[in-house]
Amino acid sequence: MALATVRALSYSYPGGLEALRECSLDVEPGEVVALFGPSGSGKSTLLRALAGLVPHFHGGRFSGRVEVGGLDTRRVRPAELAGTVGTLFQDPEDQVVFTRVRAEVVFGLENLGTPPAEIESRALEALAAVGAAELADRPVAELSGGELQRVCLASVLALRPRLLLLDEPTSQLDPEGAAAAIELARSSGAAVVVSEQRPERVLDACDRVLFLDGGRIRDGALPDAWLPRECELPDAEPSGRPVCRLDAVTFGYGEEPVVERAELTVGRGEIVALLGPNGSGKTTLAKLATGLLEPWTGSVAREGRACYLSQDPGRYLVAERADDEVALAVGGDLSRAHRALAEMGLAGFEGRHPRDLSSGERERLALAAVLVAEPDLLVLDEPTRGVDPERKDELTRLLRAQAPTRATLVVTNDHLFAAAVADRVVSTAPQRELAVA
Amino acid sequence: MRPAAAAALLAGLAAAALLAQRTISVAVIAALLLVLCLRAPAGRRRLYLVGALVSGLAVVVVTPFVEEIGTHVLWSGPTVPVLGHLDVTTEELRNGIFQGLRLTAVALAFAAYALLLDHDRLVSGTRFARRSVLAVALATRLVPTLERDAAGLIESLRGRGVEVTGARGRARLLSPLLAGSLERSLNLAEAMEARGYGRPGRTRVAQPAWTLDEKGELVLAAALVAIGALWL
Asked: CA gyration radius for chain A?
């Protein structure tokens, strides 16, 4: 008998946006189902429907039927489904309740009425399972994105749910961390429904794939862009006149250095991908290259204007209109802003409030806000986080087309993207020194 | 010290500052709380201390102009519509200092609570009104969260070559900061519900029993309130 059944589910958010149309599926106990589809295709909404958060938390128009463990999600509150269903949301920063890791993992166990004597041990067990046992007493605010994502996964696994819902659980993890997280979910014994934008990370571990498009579950083969691809990291020699050169740079946030005696050169016309495990100092290095951080020792030489696009850039938009946002970097020149918006496929969005845009549109807006300045050095920090393969291909084409005009440094954990976009790759090795990969 | 006992002591000090009738008593309480706050890391305490001291100072400055007490005039000014005749008397100035110190003491008590207490242990150690304690703990986190968001916004703008300078530049960040915190609070509420928050039958992680010292600290907190009301 299926653990979860969805029958003819259609759902519209309160604003009228139709997110799901006539979706039906069964999830068997212990089965791993991968959920693919472009941004805005309804993957997160389907996961929320399985958790009962749609419609209870979001309201809107709901028709059809969703049952999990024999419970009708329309009649049972999401909090009461929590023992049966465990949900890991897309953005780890927005789901943390407490200030320390241990309390964060304990929170769900307390809510479920776990016997007090078991709570602590189950929390530590879950942290150990995700390889985060040493983080138990750390403040959440001090964790890297990848560490935080593992802690959130531990918080869900500690509940020992029968149905595990994972919404892009590996978006901030390096390939090894991602593989470990998916394997851990699979071996937990729970049925797993995992939404992913990087198919290669889950295809080997899943029993079945569903593809959502426009709110419908589509039958047939995956579109080409979603099929797994072989990749070989490029290893061209450095080329072009150096626009940015880091020489024996050391920097840290506290007393310990995060980057130590790092060397890096990016020349005009080349795209360099900076790879490396979580917490190895990639973002710090990118900020040093752009001038957002000053090194403790060593030197950074730059030529011309440098622009930096942070991780999760849609969060950091300040203007009330999309064109004003883009024009900020060019002294309010709206005609240049309109051209940049059109280049990013956002023509017609000029007057929209940035926060009314979807997450994918926000990220394109943030990219337009940087590209409009026509920088000599462009630094992009994890630009494919949460980006579907089709849009990733578009981004690759755009960066390749504009590459000759500037030096480009891309910080990424996405090896497929690095292979497609970069001329060469450098890596933050465990010793925190840069080496050619 | 157990966070609940520390919170009770801080609340006792704040209550004593509100109940005390002598300026010197309130000043001593404020000074004591200031010394406590100075134990927090410099980077974290700056915003809280500036907020507490500036708001206290604002009360000192404004009070003489909106009150009409005393006969010892120090300065006589023009007549302003709505406010009437502006003057400053010795009594108004004294009262302004007294009220300013009170506000500073209460703000510093909150600052010490926000900066020095382990809110996680405070919430998990609470036997009653846990929802309220959790709500206060989450609200307390708002200040550092907004600080982080503001730093992210400034960095994002600097990354585009836009420097944020002056009061006007910083004021531009207020609207996105507010919108961002509203978005985050909705996401957090959803995540809490998905993890069973609000479901009946909740348990809590085993807590060590209260020691004699900790019980003594609770009694001291109650005594502070009484002392403030009766003798200070």
From this structure: 22
Is A324 near chain B, with CB under 8 Å?
no
Q: How many CB atoms lie within 10 A of CB B44?
A: 16
For residues A21 and A64, give the distance between their C-alpha atoms in angstroms, rounded to a whole number.
10
Yes or no, beta carbons of B199 and A79 under 8 Å apart: yes
Q: Helical H runs in B81-201?
A: 90-116, 119-124, 130-140, 142-158, 166-171, 174-194
Task: Please tell me if residue A436 touches chain B, with a CB cutoff of 8 Å.
Answer: no
CATH H superfamily, domain A229-305+375-437 = P-loop containing nucleotide triphosphate hydrolases (3.40.50.300)
A52 Cβ partners below 8 Å, 6+ apart? Answer: A66, A68, A73, A76, A77, A78, A81, A85
* Nearest CB to B205; choose among A85, A116, A155: A116
* Domain boundaries A4-226, corresponding CATH code: 3.40.50.300
10 Å Cβ neighbour count for A73?
26
The CA-atom distances, in angstroms, between A211 and each of A33, B1, B74, B184 are 11, 55, 79, 29
pLDDT beneath 70, residues of chain A: 429-437
Q: Which tokens in the block code for residue A135? A: 């983080």
More confident residue, A312 or B47: B47
What pTM, to 2 d.p., does this model score?
0.82
- Which residues of chain B neighbour A106 with C-beta distances below 8 Å? 124, 205
- Which of B138, B191, B199 comes nearest A94 by C-beta? B191
All structural domains of chain A with their residue ranges:
4-226, 229-305+375-437, 317-373
* Shortest Cα–Cα distance, A171 to chain B (Å): 18
Residues A4 and A50: their CA atoms lie apart, in Å, by 8
Q: Whose CA is closest to A293, among A272, A308, A275?
A: A308
Q: How confident is the model at residue B44 (pLDDT cuts 50, 70, 90)?
A: confident
